[in-house]
Amino acid sequence: MSIATAAPALAVSACSVDLPPASEENGWVAVFDPEDGIDPSRGVAEFANGGYALTMNPVSGLTDVTVTASSPPTEFIAGNTYTFTFDFVAFGQNARDLSFDLRVDGEALPGSHIDTGTTNSSGSLTAVYTPTTSGMKTVELYFFFDPTSTSAQGDDITITDLAVTCV
Fold it and tell me: Does the pLDDT at position 124 exceed 50?
């Protein structure tokens, strides 16, 4: 007598992420704080190549100028490890330093920080995020001009090819 048994089903991974490439068409939004804090007369502040390019200068005299490019809400599962990778170009020849952090729901991810005061180069960075709670969260490309300088000549940072995987 033979007994038939079902073959075990392959486990489907609960780890996935549906973060769209950074662009307005994919629901990403750029916010300038203050709203008129970036000088539109030259340079760019725009989504480009799956990231964001910030080469415009802050308005002269403003101290706390930030630019945040935010994703649409994206589901993250507690306990999964999400690895973000991106390329960058940092230009540090002007008078006002610019910093960058990759953030998830306002939390800066270790390994993602760029500061034009100490970095004048290009390369790739990897940052890891392991949420403690599940839910819809926003990924943010966060740029912050040095508040101790009122110079309008800001440095530049371009982020491209933002990608995320999880395990």
Answer: yes
Tens of pLDDT, residue by residue over 68-118, are 999 999 999 999 999 999 999 999 989 999 999 999 999 999 999 999 999
DSSP secondary structure letter of residue 154: B
User: d(Cα 99, Cα 165) in Å, to the nearest integer?
Assistant: 25
**Closest C-alpha to 92, from 39, 149, 22:** 149
DSSP 14: S
Contact 38, 69 (CB under 8 A): no
128, 164 contact by CB (below 8 A): no
Q: Which two tokens stand for residue 155?
A: 């440095």
pLDDT of residue 47: 97
Q: What predicted TM-score, i.e. pTM, was given to this entire model?
A: 0.89
Which helix (H) or strand (E) covers residue 42, if one does? none
DSSP states of 86-151 as a string?
EEEEEE--SSB-EEEEEEETTEEPTT--EETTT--SEEEEEEEE--SS-EEE-EEEEEEE-TT---
Question: Hey, what are 5's tokens?
Answer: 């048994």
Distances (CA, A) of 88 to 47, 97, 107, 160, 162: 13, 16, 20, 6, 10
Q: Is the pLDDT of residue 13 over 90?
A: no
